[in-house]
Specification:
This protein is mainly β. The chain folds into two domains: 102 residues, Sandwich (Immunoglobulin-like), CATH 2.60.40; 109 residues, Alpha-Beta Complex (Maf protein), CATH 3.90.950. The protein is built from three helices and ten strands. The protein has a four-stranded antiparallel sheet, with no helix packed on it. The termini are far apart.
Length: 213
């Protein structure tokens, strides 16, 4: 489920705060939700953070047009276009648990919000370690993904061969299988692309004495 209106503000110069809160449909705060601002329309990273205990977040970016993306494990992500020209409060953003009755998504290149073929985009994967219900450590892994300039025929064949599996893989990449052919360059950790910054998690678990070293 997405939001479709721009949050417009008055023109000015400088760097400005974009802030708000993330909650669920019951208005309960979601701590450690991932909040990302992407430059519009090229999807380059502008800023990112995780929400605090009461679901609040704050990012600082220059004047411009952005796409705010909010995600949390077990909930459907939200995307909100934002035009920033002064300090901006977006208020609460409510994430909803996905319904089992939702129709399957048809994966086609023409429906992508940003054309990725031949371009570089950034993928983030977040992890939080908890103890006794309290977060001890947060980390966001980053991978820069440059897609190859593949043909329409190859893309159609890729979707036809792997369609059912793509519904369960991050970004439809299926990097551990044929999806690696979609890319000409990847800078970042392999496990981050798969959905968990595993090496960083293992280092932290060893540091706090939960794993032998």
């Amino acid at each position: 489920m997405g939001l479709c209106c721009w949050a417009t503000v008055v023109a000015a110069q400088g760097e400005y705060r974009v802030q708000g809160t993330v909650q669920n449909a019951k208005a309960e705060a979601l701590e450690a939700a991932t909040v990302v601002l992407l430059m519009f329309p090229d999807s380059n990273l502008a800023a990112y953070t995780l929400t605090a205990e009461l679901g609040q977040y704050q990012l600082k970016v220059p004047q411009g047009r952005y796409l705010l993306q909010v995600s949390y494990v077990g909930y459907a992500p939200q995307s909100l276009p934002v035009a920033v020209a002064r300090d901006t409060s977006l208020g609460p953003i409510a994430l909803e648990a996905p319904s089992d009755s939702l129709p399957l998504i048809e994966i086609t290149a023409a429906h992508l919000p940003v054309q990725l073929r031949g371009d570089t985009h950034i993928l983030w994967s977040a992890a939080v370690l908890y103890r006794d219900g309290r977060p001890l450590w947060r980390h966001i892994g980053e991978a820069r993904m440059t897609m190859a300039d593949f043909s329409d025929d190859y893309l159609d064949g890729y979707l036809a061969r792997n369609g059912a599996q793509l519904e369960t893989t991050v970004g439809g990449y299926m990097l551990e299988n044929e999806g690696v052919r979609l890319f000409s360059r990847i800078d970042g950790d392999y496990f981050t692309v798969l959905g968990l910054p595993l090496l960083a998690v293992l280092r932290q678990l060893a540091q706090i004495g939960e794993l032998d070293t």
